[in-house]
Specification:
alpha+beta, HIT family, subunit A
Length: 101
Amino acid sequence: MNREIPAKIFYEDDEVIVVADHRPRAPVHLLIIPRQETKNFYETPPEMLDMLNRKVKLIAEKLGITDHFRIIINNGYCQEIDHLHYHFLSDRGVDKLTWIP
């Protein structure tokens, strides 16, 4: 959250920042990152998971793909950073990706 690494920002608010994955695995590959730090899925409080799930729905609506996406959450295995984040992937919605300057 310190913006130490350049990123293409799709959405942000007081609870999350949503950025393009630097190694995309799909035409739309966004990371939904909570501003409040939590190490992994297993240690995350239920209310934060609820908030993240609401953000998934918001991002799907913004992209117009409420019926065509997948979410990946790594917990230790394949987790490159110790900060929970959701991977939002789809092969649709690219035309609605706009970046915050």
